[in-house]
Known about the structure:
Rossmann fold; globular; five-stranded parallel β-sheet; 31% helix; binds glycine; single chain; binds adenosine monophosphate; alpha+beta; Dna Ligase, domain 1
Amino acid sequence: xxxxxxxxxxxxxxxxxxxxKSSQLEKLYVAPGNAGTSExxxxxxxxxxxxxxxxxxxxxxxxxxxxxxxEGPLVNGIHDYFEExxxxxxxxxxxxxxxxxxxxxxxxxxKAFMKRHRIPTAKSKSFKKNQIEEAVNYLDQKDxxxxxxxxxxxxxxxxxxxDDLAEAKKAVKKLLSGQFGxxxxxxxxxxxxxxxxxxxxxxxxxxxxxxxxxxxxxxRIGEGDIGLNTGGMGAISPVPFANREFMDKVENQVIIxxxxxxxxxxxxxxxxxxxxxxxxxxxxxxxxxxCRLGDPETEVIMPxxxxxxxxxxxxxxxxxxxxxxxxxxxxxATTVMMVSGGYPEKYEKDKEITIGELDEKSVxxxxxxxxxxxxxxxxxxxxxxxxSYGKNIETALKVSYSNIEKIKFNGQYYRRDIGKDxxxxx
Length: 426
Ligand code: AMP
Ligand code: GLY
């Protein structure tokens, strides 16, 4: 099989690493990729939102499967473009069309969808840009904390949680006055859910689905879950409290109604679905849907997937996903993200990275890295995720933390408490 993988983060390095383990792989290209993917596949410098360029490349290289890592190209319609373009419509795109990517692209849509299909989620009300007064009055009737969400994509900054009523009012006014352009023309005010978060994942052909390992990521920059939100500072899998009983609830109350609901609404969905969940007293609620895998969750999911991922992609290509197996490694996997000092605010790039020899139970998944003048240098806020296996979360974390010492770059920072909260419950 010849594949093109789109993206350049730790998620894509982990996907590429997993794809490269398949005996069915003939050739893997990654666009644009990073220093890590360049070691195991061929990087292609290409704008992944330039669909014409992506399409031409696929024709030239006889690509059979395009795996889309980030949400951007999906929300922008890369799958639709491939389907509508004659010379490309035989190519399998792993990722939904625009009509499916809307589950991530519009929180207003996904909230209404969940209500239509009785999928547990926080109660919420939507307000348009000409309803600032109504939104403010609604806040007056509520107790804090106040959860405000811009409808559209806002580079991870579109959710505001505010304890203070006056501040929440200010924030909703700012949002509805165009803080994120068209993305905040509609704003949701949602009830606050108090619980523990986790992420669940499936791969689906629109009818059948396979459940991938669940994970928990650590979003805040500071130890003890304080400070600014980031793309994710680490992850663990499995999640100790997500026992059989809980995961059965996730499957029955969330996954099945979502897949059936999409089909019922005529949305032909293929690819991954990422369920951002919160467990409130042992019951799952959906916080958000994403039309892709998570980062850094993928850095712990791929290592725990024993089955050949190309078998799953082939299942989507040939509508035979139901016949494919998903076998999960019973070991735990943890990942700790090394970031550039200052991230998620201003940080420096181009720091030389040295990577010593890691333990065989560890792998360094590159995120913001690039090869320049034969040197691997940092090229983003999140730089390298160190993933390790262990018989449980605690041992896997020990291996991640001892191996992270072997990776060095100026200004590096990482959280030392990834997974700690879950060890007590292990
Ligand atoms: P999202 O971008 O929708 O994942 O939201 C970002 C973060 O906001 C989530 O990871 C949660 O920590 C938090 N969050 C979102 N919605 C709620 C809610 N209804 N109640 C409590 N926390 C929430
Ligand atoms: N780690 C959260 C995300 O990928 O959105």
